[in-house]
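S1.2 Input.
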Amino acid sequence: MVTLLIVSEPDIASTIQGDALLKRGGWIEIDDVEGGRVWKHEIKGVYLWWFGERLLMEDALDTRFAEKSGVNVDEVIFLSRHFAASGRPSLTLHVIGVPGEYPHGEMAQHGGVKGKVMLPNSRFASWYRLMCQFAHQRGLAPEFELTIETTHHGPCLEVPTMFIEIGSSETHWGRVDAAEVWADVMEIGLGLDGSQGIGNWNSIPNDEKSVAKVMIGIGGGHYAPRHTDVLRKTDCWAGHQLANYALEMDKPEDEEWDPDTGVLPEGPWQHAIRVCVASTRSAFPGGMVMAHLDRKSFKGWQRRVIKRLLTELKVPVGRTSDFE
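S1.3 Output.
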């Protein structure tokens, strides 16, 4: 298992995470890649690439690194800043892609391709719980909001990917204590302390995979509080999370239309759910992919058509207790 951690030189929230991890020791500097310094860990197949530019528009960083270094990458984790208009300090993480945007195939405003999602990194859910643990141990909570985000923005890669972030404004991006939390997560989560690590789907036996529940979150706002609650209260895995803004649908005008039997509404919602289900299944082969709906964020007819589509895709819908 080869993990590539990518730091963005112009992003202070990224560089302080990289600095905090390097200071833990155990790193050997190797040849540069695309002008950026690279370190390899002594006991694990983990590489840290100090990339010279911002990340969102830089596609194929996994294959570019492999071509220059000769090392094939199995997963990528981006160390990044997070911006929110609220300005509230936060630690957050999310998987990537641009579901629910038209026209499909066009470059999206913040990187990625409209209608396309990347493979979710299997560490997403377990690292959220690990982040909460270390944030409380280091006294960052309740000052810092501890949350996930729904799937959004680029870049495009071939391997499972996620972002880990410090937010939410310039005031917080340079917080060393926040960077130390993420360094704790990376050290334990990747097994840099000599342990096995946490959240690698490929490391668990096939019989465990067959009963492991993988949550796709559907509905709600960008910070997905109801889906976050499932991750906090259970040990489930998680794939893509879809906010309402990625699920626009147009109710048919026919007064006789029945959401249980009539034509499915037009809009990007169908494609968004289909690609997120397919991507999550690819990232968790053999797992029990299930959906969790933020029911209150939908009208009744919307819930019914979403459940129709999920039934077609053979994705059961569960409440929090079903993911335990």
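S1.4 Remarks. DSSP finds nine helices and eleven strands in the chain.
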